[in-house]
Write a structure and sequence with these properties.
Blueprint: H1 14-27, H2 32-37, H3 41-54, H4 60-74, H5 78-90, H6 96-103, H7 110-124, H8 131-139, H9 144-167
Pfam families: CMD (PF02627)
Keywords: Oxidoreductase, Peroxidase
GO molecular function: peroxiredoxin activity
Length: 184
């Protein structure tokens, strides 16, 4: 059972209604996470803004989805794992094996693998990564700007993971459970 209410689009007013209309025009639906974030238009707008800006980054949609899967697995967020598995498969066309590998912080491509491992280190170390962690991701071919984008993807996904784990948002995608899923 959800701890925080997902607003019905019919009951949204003001800025929340405006944001819901924008989401619906883009996606055709308003996912439960965004409906729940809509209780605070600032929260929803913050999420939409950062997510939208990162979509135009150098890392690209595929790497962004793989990072989301790795981070969501680390944070045991079933909602985000479900959403990003669906998005990865249906919209970005990532195969099931690559999705599963990302959840286990692995990728056949050495550069992508380095990004996943760096993101996992950021999560595990609360951002306090070592010189060796940074040097390893740089050696894989990432620029300072791209490393900044990896950090931003981690921040975005920690935000959504913590939000959904707190809210216990009802999953409105085919359900995927974290390997170490815990009932709250």
């Amino acid at each position: 059972m959800s701890r925080l209410k997902a607003l019905s689009p019919d009951e949204a007013t003001g800025k929340t209604q405006e944001l819901f209309n924008a989401v619906k025009s883009k996606l055709g639906v308003i996912p439960n996470m965004m409906r729940t974030m809509g209780n605070s238009p600032v929260v929803l707008e913050s999420y939409l803004s950062l997510s939208g800006l990162l979509a135009h980054g150098k890392l690209g949609a595929k790497t962004g989805e793989l990072l989301a899967l790795a981070i969501s697995e680390k944070n045991n967020c079933d909602y985000c794992l479900s959403a990003h598995t669906y998005i990865g498969e249906k919209l970005v066309h990532i195969d099931a094996n690559t999705i599963n590998n990302a959840r286990n912080i692995n990728n056949a491509d050495a550069k992508t693998d380095a990004a996943l491992k760096f993101a996992a280190a950021l999560v595990a170390k609360n951002g306090l990564v070592s010189d060796a962690d940074v040097n390893t991701v740089k050696a894989a071919g990432y620029t300072d700007g791209e490393i900044g984008e990896i950090v931003a993807h981690v921040a975005l996904n920690v935000f959504t993971n913590y939000f959904n784990n707190t809210a216990q948002t009802e999953i409105d995608f085919p359900v995927v459970r974290a390997h170490n899923s815990v009932e709250a």
